[in-house]
Amino acid sequence: MNPQPLICVTDVEASSRFYQHVFGCRSDHGGREYERLVKNGRLVMQLHRFDVAHDHGPIGDVHDRPYGNGALLWFEVDDFDAALARAMELGVEVVLPRHRNPPDGYGGPNHWEFWFRDPDGYTVVMASPDGSADNGWSPDAPA
Fold it and tell me: What is the pTM of this model?
């Protein structure tokens, strides 16, 4: 199975540029109403303008804020430090600064996380691969 997340946004082209810059992905469709973003030949996410129904009807309400309430857009990235720097270049609103999960000890994914908001206010989490926070242990090591 391959997840194919789709979010409604107010400006597809601006959101596309944002995600392309932060995650180093590229446009696979382009346009003002809908976008597909890919990296290494795989779909990363889809962007859809709120007020466009296409042939399926509306899929979001531009007035129902905050967008993504109760959901996180979570991305594992191989270039965590570089992606974090690119996000900071854009002046993102930081929700949780760079931190290790778990904060200390054993268990959990043992990776780095950074939580921020995208241009529409969705909460985005970037995480390094599991086991990458230090060399002391791995997520599947016995406790």
Answer: 0.90
In this predicted structure, the answer to whether residue 5 has a pLDDT above a threshold of 90 is: yes
90 and 122 share one domain: yes
Q: Which run of H or of E encompasses 27? A: strand 26-27
pLDDT digit string, tens, across residues 32-43: 999 999 999 999
Residue 129 has pLDDT above 90, yes or no: yes
Count of domains forming the chain: 2
For 58, phi then psi, to 5°, come to: -65, 145
SS3 37: strand
CATH number, position 121: 3.30.720.110
Q: Residues near 6 by Cβ (< 8 Å), separated by ≥ 6?
A: 45, 46, 47, 48, 59
- By DSSP bridging, strand 6-9 and strand 42-49 are parallel
